[in-house]
Amino acid sequence: xNDEIMSVIGGQVFGVWFxxxxxxxxxxxxxxxxxxxxxxxxxxxxxxxxxxxxxxCIGTVVFILIGFGLLLGxxxxxxxxxxxxxxxxxxxxxxxxxxxxNLVFCATTATIVSGAMAERTKFLSYCIYSGIxxxxxxxxxxxxxxxxxxxxxxxxxxxxxxxxIHMVGGISALIGAKILGPRIGKFVTDKSGKITKVNAxxxxxxxxxxxxxxxxxxxxxxxxxxxxxxxxxxxxxFVTTTIAPAIATVVCMIFTWIKYGKPxxxxxxxxxxxxxxxxxxxxxxxxxxxxxxxxxVAGLLVCFGVWFxDYVLRIDDPVGAVAVHCLNGIWGxxxxxxxxxxxxxxxxxxxxxxxxxxxxxxxxxxxxxxIQLFGFVAVALWTAVTITxxxxxxxxxxxxxxxxxxxxxxxxxxEHGLPSAYAGFAISDMSATMDINDNTDLxxxxxxxxxxxxxxAAIPVVASSTETDANGVPIFxxxxxxxTIIAKLAKFDSLKKAMNDLGVTGMTVTQVMGCGIQKGAGExxxxxxxxxxxxxxxxxxxVVSKIPVADVIEAAKRALYTGHIGDGKIFVxxxxxxxxxxxxxxxxxAMQDVx
Length: 595
Fold this sequence. Notes:
55% of the residues lie in helices and 8% in strands.
């Protein structure tokens, strides 16, 4: 009798733990949002948060309608579950716990892609993608593994989702980032189009990124442990889930310290997640030694993956999602075939005949590794084909990427009318969120066809020289001149390129605030119109001698001109003296390695 009572109590306790685990997995959405926001630029933080929020909300809608049935419905030929609406027709007997648990896993798969496609994806297109992967792509392949499908019947093992979730999300991220193309300025090309340099875009807030990693690590105890049914099994899963990411992070720290001379903070944060991804499939069937090896490989694999995407595949992944989730999802899936041991509590891997099988390194031969390899290939092919079709359809129907101008300004402003996710704490280009004052329109936005009067009205030139020619135009004849250019933040990249093309390589850049006649109708925040009088600007200062100052003025006006009063202003000053501190050279000689 006592054993029966304890069995009932134990079942109830683990039923509650199952739901607590689901809640922890849901909390991982916050972790993903923080990691992605912290590892990208401030001008896109609001867009990142919105996408992570909608991954779960859109996923919930489509999972109710079709996803849950395809995943856990009655098995049809080992391929899909039978769709149904039991949540509406048989609510009293519906499997509520399983629904919630699988829903939060589904949302995680969709969220992985957000980081790799960050900073240049249309919000509408992303929402459509999120619905597709949550409704069709993930539920069908997850049915093969967890819903009684053909992989489950073979003995394929993926306890918590290295393959079903992380690899699928990682492959989708890889293909999406490839189709989308890199962010503006990520890769520098020569005249023939060959990439000559990879530029780093540091994340704007590493503390937030680190907070996200700790949130994810905490949530991973629910991610890996929620399906455990005994205290012994749960304890073992917690041990392996702790060892692998810790070892991965230490290995990554040592590797980056040796290779780059300093331990890399952001890479180590990625390594913690890589270790967690890799241990997700074998967490219940491996021991401490296996977890150590799995984590060590993950720590190196994430470093290789980031390098491989940048320097070989030339794919721009702002947060390292492919290196973390795709490569380590594959590694974790195959690691089951290497490190599965029946000494793990609750071990239950068996082949189609019901015979227990273990990993290669524990005397099991190649049988389990072969099954794991087959499962990886099957799921990878399904994901690659379906997500490629989905992305190309979205691209053809709605477009996948924002315009160049929208990307430069930032998606917070252009996609959501949000001046900044850090209003009051950082300067952002408020003019990007404001309606243009019609009174400033000069009627011609093309610089080549605009009259000189319109060019001068849009970007006036103010000179400090008191000498003028017969027409009253200032003469710049000292041989050295300082040119100060005030422009919109969104135009900085264009202006910098124009100066570099001209041969100007030395410049001082400052963010400033100013007011003019361009005050327009602002966007709305929580229903209240935002009124701005001081607009953020960029101030670029260059000093030239060999390069004609008139060429600098012309290049700047061409880069800044949009056909509106307030495009910018240029100030030109005579420079009386220049001294190079290092060499003692003065005036013209001191300027020769600056331009």
